[in-house]
Amino acid sequence: MPLVALTSIAKEFKGSTVFENVDLAVGKGTTIAIKGKSGIGKSTLLNIVAGLEKTTSGQYMLDGEDLSQMNLNDLSDVRKRKIGYISQHSPMIPKLTALENIVVPLWFEKKRENSDNITKRIEQLSYLFEINHLLHHKIEKLSGGEIQRVGIIRSLIKEPRLLVADEPTGALDDETALIVLMCLNELKTGGVSVIIATHSAMVAKHCDEVYQLTKEGLIRETLSC
Ligand SMILES: Nc1ncnc2c1ncn2[C@@H]1O[C@H](COP(=O)(O)OP(=O)(O)OP(=O)(O)O)[C@@H](O)[C@H]1O
Ligand SMILES: [Mg+2]
């Protein structure tokens, strides 16, 4: 069973259709790139997949749960349990350290997690993404790529099954983008599925499957080596 299954998803804003007939199946540990011209609806689609927005019609199954039937409260609960989200600019508090920025969202949680587990996980991820030496540095002193990696770690703290990334390398140069991309690819080994919206051919080249979003649906691209 795929982790994510979208069937005939459509989205309208005030009666105007952004896209329709979107079908997508994402396997465990698969990275997916979604391309498409500006304004076609990539962010809208990713917001739906991330549980931030509702579909107008169609079915969205995530890990056996039907998100298309849920209200916004239940969606928020699924999001906390199963989904990580990062965007082009991860919002950060400049005067706080990388570590503090990673744990800020946890301050607002009603149910506190075991802090030893959290510390261990941050340690593992920061080694994996090679920013372990920067955890106690203030965010304002870090480079764009380093900040983006802090954002990825923050989105992974709750061990999501799915990571949704909206142009995560859009503000980065090619070399730094590649480092971030390699980090995202590392997640496959842990079985995390990743869906990335991107304009970059380089990003798409590093994903397992590439789709083009059109008003009439998602079209799979065949990869040429
Ligand atoms: N909340 C909203 N209310 C009304 N229209 C919206 C809303 N969000 C997005 N849209 C419209 O939906 C369309 C798709 O926008 P979206 O941001 O998803 O495109 P995109 O493919 O991500 O573009 P880009 O590549 O520039 O990021 C646009 O026409 C946009 O104006
Ligand atoms: Mg967008």
What does this entry look like structurally?
Pfam families: ABC_tran. This is Lipoprotein-releasing system ATP-binding protein. It comes from Paenibacillus tianmuensis. By secondary structure, the chain is α/β, with parallel strands linked by helices. It has a single domain (4-221), classed as P-loop containing nucleotide triphosphate hydrolases (Rossmann fold, 3-Layer(aba) Sandwich), CATH 3.40.50.300. Helices cover 33% and strands 26% of the residues. It is built from seven helices and ten strands. It has helices spanning 42-49, 72-82, 98-107, 115-128, 144-156, 174-186, 201-205, and strands at 4-13, 16-26, 31-35, 57-62, 65-66, 83-86, 162-166, 193-197, 209-214, 217-221. The strands form two sheets. Strands 6-7-8-3-9-10 form a six-stranded mixed beta sheet. A four-stranded antiparallel beta sheet has the order 2-1-4-5, covered by helices on one side. α3 runs parallel beside α5 (144-156) and α5 (144-156) runs parallel beside α6 (174-186). The longest helix has 14 residues, at 115-128. The two termini are 29 Å apart. Bound molecules: adenosine-5'-triphosphate and magnesium ion. Residues 42-43, 166 line the site of magnesium ion (MG).
Radius of gyration: 17 Å
Distance between the termini: 29 Å
Largest sheet, spatial ordering of strands: 6-7-8-3-9-10
Specify the CATH architecture: 3-Layer(aba) Sandwich
**What can be said about the biggest beta sheet?**
6 strands, mixed
Average residue pLDDT? 92
Domain ABC transporter: 4-223
Organism: Paenibacillus tianmuensis
GO cellular component, one term: plasma membrane
Protein name: Lipoprotein-releasing system ATP-binding protein
